[in-house]
Amino acid sequence: MILITGASRGIGKYLLEKFIDKGEWVSGTYLSTEPEKKLQSFYHDVEIYTESSIQKWIDSVCHVDPKIILLNCAGMNFNAMAHKADIENWEETIITNLIGTFKVIYSVLPLMRKNNYGRIINFGSVVAKMGVPGTSAYAASKSGLWGMTRAIAVENANKGITINTINLGYFDIGMIDEVPESYREKIKANIPCGRFGNPEQILNTVNYIIENDYLNGSEIDLNGGLV
After folding, report:
1. Which domains are seen in the chain, by residue range?
2. Beta-carbon neighbour count of residue 97 at 10 Å?
3. Which of 27, 64, 136, 171 has the smallest count of CB within 10 Å of its CB?
4. Of these residues, 14, 30, 49, 138, which one is catalytic?
5. What pLDDT score was predicted for residue 129?
6. Is the alpha carbon torsion for 129, 130, 133, 135 positive or negative?
7. How do beta strands 43-45 and 69-72 pair?
8. Is 138 in the active site?
9. Residue from 175, 173, 95, 174 nearest 140 by CA
10. Is the pLDDT of residue 175 over 70?
């Protein structure tokens, strides 16, 4: 069973559609963005920062297949210089990207441990390593995933469960759509390979992690050479 948070747009939607095409059992979450009508049966309305909402989703779908794969794609962005930041928006970014991600993991871990199998993949960001002005909330939320991933990995490795983080660079999908075209060209000029990544490269990396049971507690930098 493949569970995907934040699956109604961007990377989450792309992955959901690709796994559906492969004939996998897939269930995705949405909140503010309504899914397409043709895909609605694959979605649940879930607040990933609310435990009861998450548990209702898990209980309704995870009886289908005891082997659970969780892809944590849900997230939000907030841009502001630290000294000008709106504290509520800053906190909301942490709650969604980090605490919400943990709450979903917390909800599936008992099932994974019971079945001696689990794959958890979190999506971090190159932004957290680069030091980009205006991204203190987003960078903090994504940095937090690394330490959390490592701790959960060592706690559950003897139960057939792996958890890893993919630190994404800039891709032709997702939040890049919010960036003005003029600034996109500046970003592209700083990428050593000279281009944005394509979504298929994300899918290939996800499949590699799922299939490799000795890769655990790790970070994969998928960013075209950015440091």
Report:
1. 2-222 (3.40.50.720)
2. 29
3. 64
4. 138
5. 85
6. negative
7. unpaired
8. yes
9. 95
10. no
